[in-house]
Amino acid sequence: MHALLVVDIQNDFCPGGALAVPEGDAIIPTVNALMDDFDAVVCTQDWHPPEHQSFASQHDGRAPYDTVEMPYGEQVLWPDHCVQGTKGADFHPALNTDRADLIIRKGFRPEIDSYSAFYENDGATATGLTGYLHERGVDTLVVVGLAADFCVKWSATDGVDEGFDVYVVEDATRGINQDGSLAAAWEAMTGAGVQIVSSGAAHTLAR
Fold first, then answer.
1. Residue 179 contacts by C-beta under 8 Å, 6 or more apart in sequence?
2. Catalytic one among 14, 43, 151, 153?
3. For residue 196, what are the contacts with CB-CB under 8 A and spacing of at least 6?
4. Which end of the chain has the lower number of beta carbons within 10 A, N or C?
5. β partners of residue 162
6. Is 153 among the catalytic positions?
7. What domains are defined for the chain?
8. Inter-helix orientation angle 28-35/199-206, to 10°
9. Please, what is the end-to-end C-alpha distance for the chain in angstroms?
10. With contact defined as beta carbons under 8 Å apart, do 157 and 189 qualify?
11. Angle 136-29-40 from CA coordinates, rounded to 5°
């Protein structure tokens, strides 16, 4: 079985949002068109408490995009975004969330960030997605969404580590591209065994 993993297509990651990915909303028609081809659709949703420790506002003298050391390693400090219960945390209204079989909320623990759909940033605290996909009989995962160089990358590479065949749809994701992070992300994904495809190829793959 094939699953489509739709990563963080939320208002705060789209133009006008608190942590906008350039052209983040441009991928939504492509993502919606892919959904009907897949046996399962899973959406992830950043869901941060107001005091989340990945927010620069929680660290005196720090600015967004600074880095700090956390117990689990280096952490980029972000503008406050996707705060629980706010409009910014909502899925973009154009996204067809009715097609989602499962929504994974991540980043709700204030002391640790969570880029991946599979694990929080300590690499050990699981979201439960692996078990769900195994129970559904999924062996192939196609990843789309935001942002390519953070949550998409981490989700895709963790998916490979969890034993899935993983594809990322290049024209159904966009990146932040912070200090060359986008090129590095594509290199890291392909190096981990992720296959990069077009949406046309993804439609064929799902069938």
1. none
2. 151
3. 167, 168, 170, 186, 189, 190
4. C
5. none
6. no
7. 2-52+81-206 (3.40.50.850)
8. 10
9. 10
10. yes
11. 5
Catalytic residue among 43, 80, 106, 149: 106
Residue 205: its pLDDT value, please? 82
- What secondary structure letter does DSSP report for 58? G
Residues whose CB falls within 8 Å of the CB of residue 69, separated by 6 or more in sequence, listed in order:
75
Active site residue 101: no
Measured torsion, CA atoms of residues 71, 182, 93, 79, in degrees rounded to the nearest 10: 40
Q: What is the 3-state secondary structure (H, E, C) of 66-81?
A: CEEEECCEEEECECCC
Q: Is the pTM of this model over 0.85?
A: yes
Q: Within 13 A of 75's CA, how many CA atoms are on the CB side?
A: 26
Question: Which element (helix H / strand E) includes 6?
Answer: strand 2-7
What pLDDT, on a 0 to 100 scale, did the predictor assign at position 5? 98
140 vs 39: CA distance, rounded Å: 10
Written as six digits, the tokens of 138 are 């999924």
Contact criterion met (CB below 8 Å) for 27 and 34: no
Q: Residue 171 catalytic?
A: no
Here the tokens at position 168 are: 């990322």
The closest alpha carbon to 170, from 149, 139, 192, 148, belongs to 148
